[in-house]
Amino acid sequence: MKEMKESRKTRYTRMVLQDSLFELMRDKPVAKITIKELCEKADINRTTFYAYYRDQYDLLRTIEDETLSWVREAVTDLIGKRDKDEMLKVLYMIFQYFTENSKHLQILMSEQGDIDFQKQLLTLIYREIGISTAADSNPGVNEDYLIFVVNGSIGLIQNWLKKGMNRSAEEMAETIYTLACQIK
Fold this sequence. Notes:
Helix content: over 70%
Oligomer: single chain
Number of helices: 10
Shape: elongated
Structural class: mainly alpha
Radius of gyration: 19 Å
Distance between the termini: 56 Å
């Protein structure tokens, strides 16, 4: 019984720290955020913070790693799909994730976010779709097309998040799918 209570407390503490970090990152880069102000914002003491993270970068890296892990699974699911309805379903799932986590993703994908994370995201997508070996292993795959679609998709996602998700997750999935198919 005690384990469940600690587990809930741990989840709550991590959530509050993550939310506080992103609130602060709306106004300044992570390099300018101190542990003191992060703890004040989260209403926890420094000892509690250090029980979970080494510093603000470790906290940000943890969030980024969780996001990358989720994206890796979603992209892997998408790559195996050949049917339009299946692909749209996976794309919708990705955009639903963005909608549900918009508060954090708006910061991660913005100018205030970590550029290394954005590069890792692109590298992950490239690797999962086989962009580095596409030209060598499959002459029918146009590497320029893949680069254009991935970068264009990231740009659309950034713009969508920046504009406050002015379109539904379903509309974004349909838009990305339609544009990718038209370009090819």
